Amino acid sequence: FCTPCLQECLKPKKPVCGVCRSTLSPGSRALDLEKQIETTETTCNGCNKKMYLSKMRSHAASCSKYQNYIMEGVKAVTKEPLHNTRNFPNRFTFPCPYCSEKNFDQEGLVEHCKALHSMDAKQVVCPICASMPWGDPNYRSANFMEHLQRRHRFSYDTFVVRDYDADEDDMMAQVLMRSLRDK
After folding, report:
1. Taking the CB of residue 144, how many other CB atoms lie within 10 A of it?
2. What pLDDT does 47 receive?
3. How many CB atoms within 10 Å of residue 97?
4. How do residues 27-82 score in pLDDT, each as one tens digit?
5. 85-89 — which CB contacts under 8 Å span 24+ positions?
6. Is 125 helix (H, G, I), strand (E, B) or coil?
7. In Å, what is the CA distance from 24 to each residue of 5, 18, 19, 180?
8. Are 58 and 77 spatial neighbours (Cβ–Cβ below 8 Å)?
9. How buried is residue 113: exposed, middle or buried, by Cβ count under 10 Å (0-12/13-18/19+)?
10. For residue 125, what are the β-bridge partners?
């Protein structure tokens, strides 16, 4: 995860899992796992020095042979430069259309706007809708707060497995097939 996304997930008000966005509950230390890490031996893949797993991270940071080993691995698996990767729209995090804050998940954007912008009447583009294939990135909502509360009370992905490249007929056929299987 990038730092801004991870920080958004770990906000003290409501920490959530970075993958599924479910609420994190306070945990307890895994003492058995800590003991296992303290007592399990491993070998550095760079210099072949033996050490406990608990010491490996600090060793790897200072071992030039280990860093060379990692770089060789990176070169071996890198096939294309990063600028050739296909550009997919981000449908997971959104900027606030009123202020400069970024990296809100859908629920976080709704909460943020309700808390800080509920009285703002400026017409803005919904960043959630604009990221969807059917969304118009130029459409300005006359009442963005009402739009958010009606249209984005829940995440599409929570209730719908969606193929954004499929047309309505394909999706209807898939739904009908699933309903027949579920009987």
Report:
1. 20
2. 94
3. 21
4. 767 888 889 999 999 999 899 999 999 999 889 889 999 888 888 877 776 655 55
5. 89/131
6. strand
7. 15, 10, 11, 37
8. no
9. buried
10. 140
